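ok so I'm stuck.
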Amino acid sequence: MSRAARAAVLTLPLAALVVMGVTGCTASAPHPSATPTATATAAAAHDGTITQITHKPGTDTGYVGALKDVKLGSCKADSSPAHFEGTVTNPTSTEQSYRIYVSLLSAGATIGVHEVDVSGVSGHATEKWSGTLPTGKPGTTCILRVERHS
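replied:
not stuck anymore, here's the structure
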């Protein structure tokens, strides 16, 4: 993606988009904190985009990009509600926390953004994560942005 195209995508409501390939999930149980925080709220922007986030991407200090740590296992966003899940693998030897932003992209436009917070992933451990959005339509794909913090 060119720098100009990337800049255009980043202007979409609350979405910083990075394309991620689809891979399989591991058989471990879901991490107890791999759900949206209790303060997350759903909001519909004037353009119809549904956002379910607590933290605007890139706004907290200490978080670093960690897309390589997260795998998207499935993205079922062709109808409502959309469902997505995957795994996060901590490559470090210390406990890490993650913010996974899943953006639903349809025909070049963001139709929804959902934040999944996964706290306390032990060193070299793999945890499952999942989320849903009350929107979806044929041809929709899931795009990830991931932030990691110790």
